[in-house]
Design brief:
Elements (H helix, E strand, L loop, with lengths): L29 H8 L3 H14 L4 H13 L7 H13 L3 H13 L7 H12 L4 H13 L7 H13 L3 H13 L7 H13 L3 H13 L7 H12 L4 H13 L7 H13 L5 H8 L3 H15 L2
Helix pairs in contact: 1-2, 2-3, 3-4, 4-5, 5-6, 6-7, 7-8, 8-9, 9-10, 10-11, 11-12, 12-13, 13-14, 14-16
Length: 304
């Protein structure tokens, strides 16, 4: 199987805007965070407010209140009020609040867009080892914003983010290793960090690492393991993975040959614009009965 079109470094320049709640850790108010995790958002809000009433400097509780208001979970959505609470928590030095404010200035959602302010807030959060802030600083290092992109600085930020378990950081670092930008080119290092990200269910990493496993690039060749990973990504509606699985199933390498199943994945990938003339030719070889099975298989997959 040929390698998929290599992702350029600019394909990874997407900022992380994961909800701050996803990154609230042990520092979060216990009752409020526990309620949030179970989906009891009104209780989470009430418990966080109790914490603030008891301690006017409880930054973690302030951040929880802000996040609930920002997302409209358990309370009426109120972005301006959320920004006020984020500001109060940030003034107390809460890393999650600093990160949230950085995202607000970066995206222009909640605050006027100001990349300079966003960068400064990310730097403050990064000083507290906030993985999302480190990742976004890496992306800002690639974006340039009027200056030359600094791949070495980006690699350092991504590495620090990845070491803290942030899968987007690991994936982005892997792409830099793959291309030798900001770091010495190394397929082995690329495979290592892609594997780390794939283990955290990072979809692009699953695709890239599956291809590397299948081809034996930077890692011991294992067609079955690579095919399994690509099949998982295909089931998550990644068109590249669907295309690669279709080819694998036609060839019968890593997975048992199955032309009907192969064409199901091919049709799904084609439907979102990923064309493949070779697979089109294979589709034309199907008997009418096989075509009918493919059509039914696609309908079953789509739930129609």
């Amino acid at each position: 199987m040929k390698r998929a079109v290599a992702a350029t470094i600019f394909a990874l320049t997407a900022f992380s805007a994961a909800p701050v709640s996803a990154m609230l850790g042990p520092g979060a108010p216990d009752m409020a965070f526990g309620a949030f995790q179970r989906g009891f958002y009104q209780t989470a809000f009430q418990e966080a407010m109790k914490r603030i009433d008891a301690d006017k400097h409880d930054a973690a509780a302030m951040t929880m209140v802000a996040e609930l208001l920002f997302q409209g979970l358990g309370v009426k959505q109120d972005v301006p009020e959320a920004m006020r609470w984020y500001g109060l928590a940030a003034a107390e030095g809460d890393g999650n609040a600093l990160f949230a404010l950085g995202l607000a200035y970066l995206t222009g959602v909640g605050e006027p867009k100001d990349v300079g302010k966003a960068r400064g807030l990310f730097e403050q959060a990064a000083a507290k080892n906030h993985p999302g802030a480190l990742y976004n600083l890496g992306i800002l290092s690639l974006e340039g914003n009027g200056v030359v992109s600094d791949f070495a600085k980006a690699a350092d930020y991504f590495h620090r983010s990845a070491d803290l378990g942030f899968s987007d950081g690991a994936y982005s670092l892997a792409l830099l290793y793959k291309q030798g930008r900001g770091v010495e080119q190394s397929d082995a290092q690329a495979a290592y960090w892609l594997n780390r990200a794939a283990q955290d269910n990072n979809l692009p990493a699953e695709v890239e690492y599956g291809i590397m496993l299948f081809n034996g690039d930077g890692v011991k060749r294992d067609e079955a393991a690579g095919a399994k990973l690509l099949l998982r990504a295909a089931g998550r509606n990644n068109a590249v993975a669907q295309n690669r699985v279709a080819r694998i199933l036609v060839a019968g390498r890593g997975l048992k040959a199955d032309r009907v199943e192969a064409m199901k994945w091919h049709i799904l990938a084609t439907a979102v614009g990923l064309r493949d003339a070779w697979l089109d030719a294979e589709l034309n070889k199907l008997t009418p009965a096989e075509r009918a099975k493919v059509e039914q298989s696609v309908r079953d997959y789509l739930g129609k």
